[in-house]
Amino acid sequence: MAFYLAIKEFWRARGRFLLFSLVIALITMLVLLVAALGTGLADANRQFIDKLDADLLVVQEDNDLVLTTSRLDRQTLNGVRRINGVEAAGLIAFSNGSVLLPAGSEAEDIDVSLVGIEPGQLGAPELLAGQPLRDRYADQVLLDERLAADLAVSIGDRITLRTVQGAEQESFELTVSGITEERAYFFAPSVYLPLYTWEKVRPQAVGGGDGQPIGNLIVVTLTDPSQTELISARVLELVDGVEVADKETLVRAQPGYTAQQTTVEAQRGFALVIGVLVVGGFFQIQTLQKLPQIGMLKAIGIANRTVALSTLAQIVIVTAVGVALGTAVTLLMALGIPPVVPLRFTPPNMLAAIAALMLIGPIGGMVSVRLAVRIEPLSAIAQGK
Question: How confident is the model at residue 194 (pLDDT cuts 50, 70, 90)?
């Protein structure tokens, strides 16, 4: 009976209910887009670190675990490698530059992260195609697959990197040796170079660096990953000037990451609160407008439980229609959003957002359900005269 009454009223006032479903659809679009933006921003910030094959990460001490200000030399790397329980350790260095597009291209050059690695050592990425870097001085690079697709290059092609050397911009011709999976380092696609080649091409005060490369991060794997706390203590005791962290701690320590994610989560929370208030306000007005009808139903013997379930069913139907419509439109919009916008729709996050949206209807409508239950039949009928 309750469901029948809900459907009957929904159909007779379908214009009004569908209009409100459109309002819920707009709220749904906002929540889903904010959720996708939060996931995309987080992924762009942490993708590189998350995909490292490492049990521990070592950075310079007294710099709040910030990678850009960390400085680690080969002596520190060798000290980490000598510690009992360390299976392997590799030095990684970060910088930035740009890849020049072919002459005649109307698109702008692509900003990239230059990642220096030791060929054959820990820190080198797994390849999807091609050959790994083998010579520490080779003019070769590995590209992540997204960058390779944007550049339309394949194994054996040559690319041009441009960096600032002194007061001038200088270009370097390098051969693509392999393709890795997408590994963005703080929003920029990654270009992997042998560590000494990286030292030569990285931006610097004077061109042509030829000294020992200074890295930013040492990645460490352990013979027994369950002993991370013990090995961390050994590293801090036996190696001077370093700090040890896990992946999650290091990501959250990077400037702006926590503030960025907190802001996005606050926006999503405000959108849900607005949804609750809008749904609650609409159904409260709807209930007040039909007080005489509810009073008549009660007068002929309809139980409070049936009235409450009928009102709740209306709320769920309207919310479900709005959420379904908003989800469909959001996914269609996502097809036309350019890749430069860091939106990432993942099933877990979308399902969580949809579940939250489906809850705002019943939560927001509790006031109208309570109002419908408390209506006195005679008073409500008298108000309708």
Answer: very high
Outline where 194-246 has alpha helix (H). 195-201, 228-238
Q: How far is C-alpha 139 from the chain's CA centre? A: 34
Predicted confidence at residue 31, as pLDDT, reads: 87
**Which residue type is seen at 235?**
V
Q: Measure the CA–CA gap between 89 and 74, rounded to whole angstroms.
A: 11
Is residue 117 within 8 A of residue 197, CB to CB? The reply is: no
Whole-angstrom distance, CA of residue 312 vs CA of residue 145: 50
Rounded CA-CA distance 116/143 in Å is 12
Minimum mean pLDDT among 16-30, 100-114, 156-170: which range? 100-114
- CA dist 62 and 145 (Å) reads 35
Distances (CA, A) of 2 to 17, 79, 303, 305, 333: 18, 74, 10, 9, 37
CB-count exposure of residue 95 (10 Å: 0-12, 13-18, 19+): buried
Q: Which amino acid is present at 19?
A: L
Who's near 194: CB < 8 A, 6+ residues apart?
116, 117, 118, 119, 133, 135, 136, 137, 138, 140
Nearest to 124 by CA among 156, 158, 154, 88: 88
Check residue 107 and give its pLDDT.
62
Distances (CA, A) of 268 to 37, 165, 218, 305: 10, 44, 36, 34
pLDDT of 210 higher than 80: no
Does residue 383 surpass a pLDDT of 90? no
Q: How many angstroms separate the CA atoms of 164 and 320, rounded?
A: 55
- 132 CB-near residues (< 8 Å, 6+ apart): 119, 120, 124, 142, 177, 178
pLDDT of residue 339: 73
Sign of torsion over alpha carbons 152, 158, 162, 163: positive
Q: What are phi and psi of 339, to 5 degrees?
A: -60, -20
Amino acid identity of 367? V
Residue 105 has pLDDT above 60, yes or no: no
Give pLDDT tens digits for 244-270: 999 999 998 888 888 888 888 888 888
Q: What angle do CA 142, 143, 148 make, to 5 degrees?
A: 145
Q: Token digits for 55?
A: 């049990």
